[in-house]
Design brief:
alpha/beta, Protocatechuate 4,5-dioxygenase, Chain B, six-stranded mixed sheet, 9 helices, zinc ion binding, zinc, Xdiol_dOase_suB, Dioxygenase, ferrous iron binding
Length: 261
């Protein structure tokens, strides 16, 4: 079995306690996929120069946000880790001469556990978290993802968790999408569907409204898309499964990379 990879927008941490079209979509996505033996998540909320990999056999749940309802700080997502898979990921990085760091004791940030809470609420599938480096070029991010492509052929589900439009300074009070956000997403979408990496890798220079959609202080949220995309380099198929805009500009989307199941 070869599982597709996904880019999943994790939106606001409040998504953990919401019930809406997007959370229902995530519920259904988890239901329709064959149960993976493990999940690897590239998360926007772990940004460091060298790829870091969680080596733990168990995880704590990190509540790495503030100003939300008190019940959100009691949520536990006790998914196990998978140290053997983490070691395999490190071996693949070593094979490609990529410096990296095995890490113990980090825990699952909300970019990991919030979407997984809806996809796999029983928290019974092992999770390995891999960091991103927002200062690398999209080409480099894609190439790192490509190093892990063989894992998809071994029942491992790979997810990039972030957001294509994630400018928190421009959140509105309505769910009516802002034109500039839609225009950016549509430009990205057209090139994703055609696997036009030449233009995608230059999105910051070519895409309309790129500096507004992906501000300099928020590039880590787009980075997971390129890591996840790279893990489907052999098939080069992309399909958008969901799109909405809470607060008018916070892009909640899901992209599937690779053949469907």
């Amino acid at each position: 079995m070869t599982l597709p990879a996904f880019f999943i927008a994790h939106g606001s941490p409040a998504l953990a306690v919401e019930s809406n079209d997007y959370t229902q979509f995530l519920n259904q996505l988890g239901d329709r996929l064959p149960a993976p033996k493990a999940i690897v998540v590239f998360t926007a909320h772990w940004d460091c120069p060298e790829p870091s990999v969680t080596m733990d056999d168990s995880h704590q749940t990190l509540h790495d946000f503030y100003g939300f309802p008190s019940n959100m700080y009691t949520i536990d997502y006790p998914a196990p880790g998978h140290s053997a898979l983490a070691s395999e990921i490190c071996a693949l990085f070593t094979r490609s001469n990529l410096p990296h760091q095995p890490i113990r004791g980090r825990g699952l940030d909300h970019g990991v556990w919030v979407p997984l809470l809806h996809m796999y609420p029983q928290a019974n599938i092992p999770v390995v978290v891999v960091s991103v480096d927002s200062l690398r070029s999209p080409q480099e991010q894609y190439d790192i993802g490509r190093m892990l492509e063989q894992l998809r052929h071994d029942d491992v589900l790979i997810i990039g968790s972030g957001g294509t439009v994630h400018n928190l300074r421009l959140l509105g009070s309505s769910d009516e999408p802002e034109g500039w956000a839609v225009e950016f997403d549509n430009w990205m979408g057209e090139r994703l569907e055609k696997w036009n990496t030449r233009e995608l890798f230059q999105y910051d220079k070519k895409a309309p409204n790129a500096r507004t959609a992906v501000p300099s202080y928020g590039t880590e949220h787009l980075a997971p898309l390129f890591y996840a995309m790279g893990t489907a380099d052999m098939s080069r198929k992309a399909k958008r499964l969901f799109q909405s805009y809470p607060y008018g500009t916070l892009s909640l989307n899901c992209w599937q990379f690779g053949d469907g199941v």
